[in-house]
Amino acid sequence: MEITLLGVGLGLYLIVALLTAVSGAQARFAQLLAYSGAAVASLLVGGAAILICLSGQAVSLSLWQLISIPSFSVQFGLRLDPLAAPFVLLIAVGVFVVSLYAPAYIAHYPNYPPARLGAAYNLFALSMVLVVTAGNAFTFILAWEAMSLVSYLLVMTDHQDKEVRQAGFIYLVMTHSGTVFIIGSFMIMYVASGSFEFAAWHGLGGHLDVLTSSLAFLAALFGFSVKAGLIPLHIWLPRAHPVAPSHISALMSGVMLKTAIYGLLRLSFDFLSGAAGVGWWGALLLGLGVASAILGVLYALMERDLKSVLAYSSVENIGIIYIGIGAALLLTSTGQTALAGIALAAVLFHSFSHALFKSLLFLGAGAVGYASGTRDIEMLGGLLRRIPLTGALFLLGSVAISGLPPLNGFAGEWLTLQALLTIVNQPGMAAPYSALAMLVVGGLALTAALAAACFVRLFGISFLGLPRSEAVGNAHEPPRSMLLAMALLALGCLGFGLLPGLLLGLFSTAVNQMSGSPSLATLQTASYGLQSGFGQVQPILVLLLGLALAALPFVIGRVMSGGRVRSVRTWACGNDLKPGMEYSGLGFAKPLRIVFSRLLRPTRELETIEGDSPYFPQRIIYRGSIPSLFEERIYEPARAGIIALSRRLRRIQNGNVHSYLAYIFAALVLVLIITRELGIKLCSIRYC
Amino acid sequence: MFDPLLLISQTLLLLVLAPLLNGLIKKTKARLQGRRGAGLLQGYYDIAKYFARERVVSEHHSWLLTLTPYLVFGTTMAAGLLVPTFMLSSPFGLGGDFIMMVGLFALGRFFLALAGLDTGSAFGGMGSSREMMVATLVEPGLLLTLFSIAYATGSTQLDAMAAAVLRSPTHGFSPAQGLAFAALLIIAIAETGRIPVDNPDTHLELTMIHEGMLLEYSGPDLATLFWATQIKQMIILSLLANLFLPWGIAASGTAAALLWGLLVYLLKLALLGITLAFIETASAKLRLFALPELLGTAFGLAALAFISQFIIRGV
């Protein structure tokens, strides 16, 4: 049953993609076909995922032979097991909602080719599901590459723009560097197990020595972290996500990053499970995660492009997810696999929550672009009165991403904090790891506060106050289909925030497979709230209580003042209120820029153009920027070094045919020697 | 965990006593400054006065400005019911633990800051910007302090934490507790918006952090916000009282224990309030960018409290 659903869904993506690609210039038909096809396929695939989540069984599907030589055959095979199911569900939900949003959004931009975008969109969805359901290394790498290439094409939709071309190129280079390391890690595991099948790699960590398993872990960590956008491998993310069409940014940020999280979970808790003495893996992830979280949100606070803020915020949330994975690894390394359940629940919950609210925010940013034509928050303002529905939905997304109760961001952070407390309270945990967990708690609190500041700034400057430019004047609500898509996501944020236990129930089997802990029923309370060994939260009860209590002063006020209201101009010290008087995004973030200047290293330049007298300048120009430190100190030197090295190596290309013939001869001799040596070695292992 | 009688009595206690506590702090400050000061009950008269006035709103406002005072009040009261006051159990403990309490305060602050930006006035923006900066500096210290106590007591539920401190062999006297108390006292000053962090008595630009965000409200909205601020102050002082000085709290439901618990609770609140007043009078307001040092000290004290817990536990 599940296999049928999965198979039909995937096939539908492919067929729809092909049909759309060949449907030519009929824009409306292409749109309808592409996005309704994608929506239906998502429902099918999502249904399969839910069934697997509930039943806890694994199903596999072998499609066709990729390689078939006597000693070696590889199938294009899929495997949907409880670990993959939550991620398939995440992809399905994301693609479904964005399919509702996309037609109206794309129709607004006449220079977008609708047929090709629709085809690429379906291929993107297909490749993401294939990555998560791949059953062996070949299928995984094929799907991973397809996903990277199709997303590159989608990022390059506005390829006339130089900035877009640069962003796409950097994305392509970074993602392929990562893929190389993933392949390297898979090769290590192939040599250790003799097979490419993922099923055969389970528990390999127990059979490998610490050095080899650490090498495999670090290589794959590097590879997946590039795709996930962890600092310092994040430089492509704030370039690529803002320039892509908003619905694609939503899918990339909300969904594609989670495929990397899936890869990391599969690696740590399936392939390399059973590895001993590897607490430092967890500590490494904790450190990287907290650094990524703090730096990500600090950079987000300093951006003025709506989508750049959201892109850096994704870096922050990936950091929070890595904290959860690190906590789970630390707990399993002490042998307490059952306790890791809460950390793994936090990882899955936060991944799903982030998919919901980040997609909501990106779709909202698209709606703002649709309404006002600009993404620059310093040009916006007062949108809440002109596009109230979009504003309300964007507000809900902002509250959710800031980790405030009673929405789903808070529940995810609560679970992560409880997991960290579990680490500290573990009697067998080494003291440095407990101290690290304690510092990470402080870091996580800092991140949450900075994220709240970031989204107060983002929402406040864009939607509140007075309009700062003409762009806002003609703002009107986007079409109902776009609002519906956002409303569905908002409903998810609210629903899973009030009743987080519902979602935990779905993830039980996944956590069970990863950690062997009993079902997550112990983490749920009667009213679908959350509980751990240390405390409990029941957001829905708190909401009801808060509403009841808030009514008190409202009633008193109504009774005593009689509801009299008088509307006047805002006080501006006696002057007329002008848009220039209100706070700007730059000004809002300035105190934080100063407090964190050691981390951010802002540059500033002040230029005074004098008038007749030096005491009365004609103009004062202020230029400030936040340099990209990682690019300046890591990537630029690396790039310069590689180019310098290749210049030196180019000397062998001296244009002389005789030396080229000599090179060929030398290479042949070398290859013969190596294969003879290697042949002897391989023979001694297994291949003769 | 859920006792309707305690719920109602604690709600009434918070609602009724908060202005009196604020009045006590103001009176103490006045006396220390050589003034007679307003009466202890002035807070009630002020709130009643504002409730009866008309609402004057900016023509640029949105529904957010209208909603915020009541949302802040609701979140503050809900957080207040998670905290134990005169009895050793929180009336709404099954709603959440201290993470939920901190989250509820953060929710109120989020909307207050947004509403500050709503009318397009520069004062509101300034208040919002500075408030979010101070919040960034306060939250790590606050969560780490509470976590260090949670680590010592094995629970994140506030009433269980208070009970564990009461039962502990050292009766709550330990270096870790002392360090955590010092950290939480500094944080309490920041959260209640008192000198040296912010000046609650003036509306000048230089001293506007919390007050800046309240400028655009009038009438019942302003009354609600003042009341909510006073309730938050009372909640934070209750936290200080019951997590570090829990002796005398009513552990059982007998009339004698409850009466004694109530009396001791009022005394502790009064003492802590007077302490705050002394700190306010004895120090000057810090420059805004000197706050990271002060609040970083609180974070450092909290970290030390945590580490000393390790040493005590022998981990």
Record the SSE blueprint.
The complex is a heterodimer of chains A (688) and B (315).
Chain A: H1 2-22, H2 27-55, E1 59-69, E2 72-80, H3 85-107, H4 114-133, H5 137-155, H6 162-193, H7 210-228, H8 237-243, H9 246-271, H10 279-302, H11 306-333, H12 340-372, H13 383-386, H14 388-401, H15 408-424, H16 431-463, H17 480-498, H18 500-515, E3 530-531, E4 536-537, H19 539-561, E5 565-568, H20 585-595, H21 597-600, E6 603-610, E7 617-625, H22 629-649, H23 657-687
Antiparallel strand pairs in A: 1-2, 3-4, 6-7
Chain B: H1 4-32, H2 42-52, E1 55-58, H3 63-80, H4 98-118, H5 122-153, H6 158-167, H7 175-191, H8 210-214, H9 220-244, H10 255-282, H11 291-313
Helix pairs in contact in B: 1-9, 1-10, 2-9, 3-4, 3-9, 4-5, 5-7, 5-11, 7-9, 7-11, 9-10
Provide structural commentary.
The complex is a heterodimer of chains A (688) and B (315). Chain A contains 23 helices and 7 strands. With 688 residues, chain A is mainly α. Chain A has a two-stranded antiparallel ribbon. The longest helix of chain A is centred in the middle third of the chain and has 33 residues, at 340-372. Chain B has 11 helices and 1 strand, in the order H-H-E-H-H-H-H-H-H-H-H-H. Chain B has helices at 4-32, 42-52, 63-80, 98-118, 122-153, 158-167, 175-191, 210-214, 220-244, 255-282, 291-313, and one strand at 55-58. In chain B, helix 5 (122-153) packs parallel to helix 11, helix 7 packs antiparallel against helix 9 (220-244) and helix 7 packs antiparallel against helix 11. Chain B is globular and about 60 Å long. The mean pLDDT of chain B is 90. The chains are: A mainly alpha (688), B mainly alpha (315). Chains A and B meet through helix 14, helix 15, helix 16, strand 4 and helix 19 of A and helix 2, strand 1, helix 3, helix 4 and helix 5 of B. Strand 5 (565-568) of chain A pairs parallel with strand 1 of chain B.
